Amino acid sequence: RKNYTRNADAFQLFIKGRYFWNQRTTEGLRKALEHAQQAIAVDPAYAPAYVGLADSYNLLGAQHNVLPPRESFLKARAAASRALEIDPMLAEAYASLAFINCWFEWNWTASEQNHLKAIELKPNYPTAHHWYGELLTTMGRFEEAYVELQMAQELDPLSLAINVDLAASFYH
Questions:
Q1: Buried b (16+ CB within 10 A) or exposed e, 14-34
Q2: Cα dist from 140 to 44, 54, 69, 135, 137, whole Å
Q3: Are 151 and 120 spatial neighbours (Cβ–Cβ below 8 Å)?
Q4: For residue 1, what pLDDT is reported?
Q5: How far is CA 89 from each of CA 15, 46, 84, 96, rounded to the nearest angstrom?
Q6: CB burial of residue 107 (10 Å; 0-12, 13-18, 19+)
Q7: Which one of 36, 66, 99, 167 has the fewest CB atoms closer than 10 angstroms to its CB?
């Protein structure tokens, strides 16, 4: 385990941001974005806060269509890249990049590689399994998608987003 910041304010801002991000509403994502930006302002070397920034931009551009994808995904890539400059072994940043690879670049090979890297680095990160399951569903690899989404659900059984996407994979 790595302690990424000694600044309690930065940590609190980050945690609040993830809380709002997990709501998966437009207002929640905007609040998540603000909290990530504030955490970075307090501690510019706090790598997870950059992931919070990247993930907020990812969803604001992809699933909520609040920001133009070209704008949001470029900002998400910059934030995830900055997180990896700070810590090249940060699994969450690889998952963020994998999301960009999948939903903006349509580069499913790179997306799968980044998902697998994230899972290798942090096997208990539910978002990596969740988003990898979405990629596998998109690719028509339904049995593998089910395994990944089931793992995500086991790791975070109360996540509405994971439960909805698990159901969606059955629909597809």
A1: bebbbebbbebeeebbebbbe
A2: 40, 27, 24, 9, 5
A3: no
A4: 57
A5: 20, 14, 7, 13
A6: middle
A7: 167
All residues at 6 or more sequence positions from 46 whose CB lies less than 8 Å from its CB, including other chains: 4, 5, 7, 10, 14, 39, 40, 86
Q: How high is the pLDDT of residue 139?
A: 96
Cβ burial, residue 116 (10 Å; 0-12/13-18/19+): middle
Evaluate whether 46 touches 39 at the Cβ level (below 8 Å): yes
- Please state the φ and ψ torsions of residue 36, each to the nearest 5 degrees: -65, -45
Predicted confidence at residue 78, as pLDDT, reads 98
Q: List Cβ neighbours of 85 (8 Å cut-off, separation of 6 or more).
A: none
First to last CA, the chain: 38
DSSP 78-113: HHHHHHHHH-TT-HHHHHHHHHHHHHTS--HHHHHH
- Please answer whether residues 165 and 153 qualify as being in contact, where contact means their C-beta atoms are separated by less than 8 angstroms: no
How far is the C-alpha of 81 from the C-alpha of 61, rounded, in Å?
18
Residue with tokens 């990898």: 132
Positions of the chain with pLDDT under 50: none
d(CA 46, CA 15) in angstroms, rounded, equals 12
Burial class (CB in 10 A: 0-12, 13-18, 19+), 1: exposed
Structure tokens at 44: 């510019």
